[in-house]
TrEMBL record:
Region (Disordered): 647-722
Basic and acidic residues bias (residue ranges): 695-711
Localization annotation: Cell membrane; Cytoplasm, Cytoskeleton, Cilium basal body
Keywords: Cell membrane, Cell projection, Coiled coil, Cytoplasm, Cytoskeleton, Membrane, Transmembrane, Transmembrane helix
Membrane protein topology class: Single-pass membrane protein
Protein name as annotated: EVC protein
Chain segments annotated as coiled-coil in the UniProt record: 390-472, 613-640
């Protein structure tokens, strides 16, 4: 069944991955968000099905093994303890994996930025070369060596040739880098398959070993360490392959850049040494000097652009460092929220268990263990969902962040290269800075709105998961209460002396020693004693309830007095509060105050109910003991009266009397015939329940008024029914 659950999960995840797949190699953000949501739903559903199946498997095992209740509870607690250990290991592993993934994302951004920087070499060089050529041609036009029309034609042809080379360079970069990456991915897939075979072999070797039941924790630790070792090895393999792939692409781009740069230089050389001498009439030597001038002007332009590129790279690294700090802060806040949620849930289940109050320590520990296990499982999957949502939120805002970052870089570079010379430039820089601030505020507002949207979605999913946790724990608590009730009912219904009571009733009916008056007096005295016991119980119960009510009233009075004193202090210090405190802060303080008062009142009510329950339980125990004693006396006197030969059972202990109550040494009324037999029957001790036994149909006689024993039978039947 567990394997079937795993197959269903794999099938659903595969369907989710394939859904919405198009021929395009790209995915939209909407597709990613939908897939992530469906993935989380499948994971939560699988978790619920897994724990339900676990309960079924446990119950089936216990039903087939025919274990005792205590042994079954111990087995389930041991299993729960081991599952908690497994969930803790999985949670730690998931946290480490999330941090590794986040670090890899940052590394990928660095790789992408580096490749984009290499791709920008040729476009920037094209601009620099064209600008310098244009300046030289303008100078020739001013000297009348070149007409304006000729200059425009030359620039147009050169511009066209340059951008053809640029397009060829871009296409070659894309195509050759794709081919390179595909080859490396094929090699990675082969390595991964080999790696998987080695992993399965090592896992099979470990699983084939025989572990004693006491060594389960050692086995779990060893198996988890093996899985972590495999994961880390595969992770390092992928990291190494990513670095090598990036280096290979970088080398490819440098090679293509070198070729493109050489082609551009050839075009410029052709312009100066072949075209210009024909068009302008200048000598070849003069054209060579123009080319040398072009080269001299090109070097500082390229150096300037390289300086700008390095400055952009530094700004990007600073931005990435800020994002890392922000991610660490968000991770810490998430850990705090998870801890708060865990503590709140544990407090709730602890309150529920405290309110029950009737379960044994073993049952309470089992409930708390089960809750801890399910809570850990739920939080592990919700943490995974939170990590996914954080990535999606970052992806949603990445484009706007990139645009804003480019705007900042341009402004910073412009300020560094061309300081303000006049009022107009100063005003322009001020306008740009104001625009950047506006864009930052918009981006911050949209980011908060995006995080709020994902947070509300996460809260909804948390509530759904906690609803499952609550339903499952209700079943666990209900089963525990049912087992407890069955045990208590079994204890109360155990009646080892039932056969003796039935024989005693038959013997009393047939006995010739008991007269109607004696039995009537015996039963009346027994009823009188029962009435006195019940009356005493009702009086003590009423007195105790009044006492508890008085104590509760006193506590309420003291609490109100303390609240009034606290309110007076708050009113006195209210004028000292900062006037600038917002309405929201005051509302939060008032909310906390009301919640604290509510929790205090709930605690007081709970303590009062506990005292009431304990008191009533004590009185009921006392009543039950008194009724048992009265019944035992009645049994002994009836046996003595009927002179029934029975086996003598020694009393296990003296009759218990409540504290503060004097022991009544006077026995119940006995018939004169049985007074001389007290020494023979005074040690007779029988279990409770005879009073109801006397009312059985065995006391009913089909004949009326024939003999004295038959009259006694009718009288016993009537009294017993009463």
């Amino acid at each position: 069944d567990f394997e079937e659950l795993q197959k269903q999960l794999d099938s659903r995840l595969q369907n989710t991955e394939m859904s919405g797949a198009h021929n395009s190699e790209y995915q939209t953000l909407e597709d990613l968000e939908r897939k992530e949501r469906e993935y989380s739903e499948h994971i939560i559903d699988n978790m619920e099905a897994f724990w339900k199946q676990t309960e079924k498997a446990q119950q089936a095992f216990l039903d087939q093994s025919k274990r005792s209740s205590a042994k079954a509870t111990k087995i389930m607690m041991d299993l729960t303890e081991k599952m908690i250990a497994v969930e803790s290991l999985l949670s730690e592993s998931q946290d480490l994996r999330a941090m590794d993934i986040q670090e890899r994302l940052f590394n990928w951004e660095l790789m992408v930025k580096m490749i984009d920087s290499l791709k920008s070499y040729i476009p920037e060089e094209c601009k620099c070369r064209l600008n310098i050529v244009s300046n030289i041609l303008d100078h020739l036009t001013v000297k009348n060596n070149l007409s304006v029309r000729q200059k425009e034609e030359l620039l147009t042809d050169l511009h066209k040739a340059f951008w053809e080379q640029l397009a060829h360079f871009s296409n070659e970069c894309i195509q050759q880098s794709k081919d390179l990456i595909l080859k490396r991915l094929e090699c990675r897939a082969k390595k991964r398959e080999e790696f998987k075979h080695r992993q399965k072999a090592e896992q099979g070797s470990l699983l084939s070993k025989t572990f004693h039941i006491k060594d389960v924790h050692d086995f779990l630790k060893a198996y988890h360490e093996l899985l972590e070792k495999h994961r880390q090895a595969q992770w390092e393999l992928e990291e190494e392959d990513d670095c090598k792939s990036t280096e290979a692409v970088a080398d490819l781009y440098k090679e293509l850049y070198s070729k493109a740069s050489h082609a551009l230089a050839e075009l410029v050389t052709e312009l100066f040494l072949q075209t210009l001498p024909v068009v302008t009439g200048l000598s070849v030597r003069e054209c060579e000097l123009l080319k040398e001038e072009w080269q001299e002007n090109l070097v500082p332009q390229l150096q300037k652009w390289e300086t700008h590129r390095q400055r952009r790279w530094k700004l990007f690294q600073e931005q990435l460092l800020q994002e890392k700090k922000l991610w660490i802060k968000e991770y810490a806040l998430s850990a705090v929220m998870q801890k708060h949620l865990s503590e709140k849930q544990e407090k709730i289940i602890q309150g529920v268990v405290n309110r029950l109050g009737c379960l044994s320590d073993e049952s309470v520990n089992y409930i708390l263990q089960k809750h801890r296990l399910l809570l850990c499982s739920v939080l592990t999957r919700l943490t995974l969902r939170r990590v996914g949502m954080a990535a999606l939120a970052r992806m949603r805002m990445s484009r706007k962040k990139s645009l804003l970052q480019e705007l900042r870089e341009q402004h910073i570079l412009q300020k560094g290269t061309s300081p303000c010379q006049d009022e107009d430039q100063w005003q322009l820089q001020k306008a740009v800075e104001s625009h950047i601030l506006e864009e930052e505020e918009k981006l911050e507002e949209e980011t908060q709105q995006t995080h709020l949207e994902f947070h509300q979605q996460l809260v909804t999913e948390i509530q759904e998961a906690l609803q499952f946790l609550q339903q499952h724990m209700e079943q666990v608590i209900g089963q525990t209460l049912l087992q407890h009730a069955r045990r208590e009912a079994g204890k109360k219904s155990s009646d080892d002396g039932q056969d003796f009571k039935e024989r005693l009733v038959e013997a009393a009916v047939e006995s010739v020693y008991g007269t109607s008056n004696n039995i009537n007096r015996l039963v009346q005295n027994y009823y009188q004693q029962l009435g006195e016991i019940i009356e005493g119980y009702e009086g003590k119960k009423l007195q105790q309830l009044k006492s508890l009510q008085a104590e509760r009233g006193e506590r309420n009075r003291l609490r109100k007095k303390q609240e009034n004193e606290l309110a007076l202090k708050e009113k006195q210090t209210k004028g000292l509060l900062d006037v600038s405190s917002t309405v929201h802060q005051r509302m939060v303080l008032q909310q906390k105050k009301v919640l604290a008062q509510f929790e205090l009142q709930q605690q007081i009510r709970l303590e009062s109910l506990k005292q009431k329950l304990l008191g009533l339980h004590h009185l009921e125990t006392e009543l039950e003991n008194q009724l048992k004693e009265a019944e035992q006396d009645f049994v002994s006197e009836l046996a003595a009266l009927a002179r029934v030969p029975v086996a003598v059972k020694k009393k296990p202990s003296k009759r218990s009397k409540p504290a503060g109550e004097k022991t009544n040494s006077k026995k119940t009324f006995q018939s004169p015939e049985s007074e001389d037999k007290d020494n023979s029957y005074e040690n007779i001790q029988e279990p409770p329940g005879l009073t109801s036994g006397l009312c059985r149909e065995r006391l009913q006689s089909p004949h009326e008024g024939e003999t004295e024993p038959r009259k006694n039978s009718k009288m016993l039947k009537k009294r017993g029914n009463r």
